[in-house]
Amino acid sequence: MSLRKVPLIATIALIGLWGIAFTATHWPMSDPQQEVFFPHFDKVVHASIYAVLAIMALVAATTWNYRWSLLLAVTVAVALVGVGIFDELTQMLVAGRSADPLDLAADTLGAVLGVSLFGLTRSIRGPEPLSASDSSS
Question: Is residue 49 part of a domain?
Answer without folding.
Answer: yes
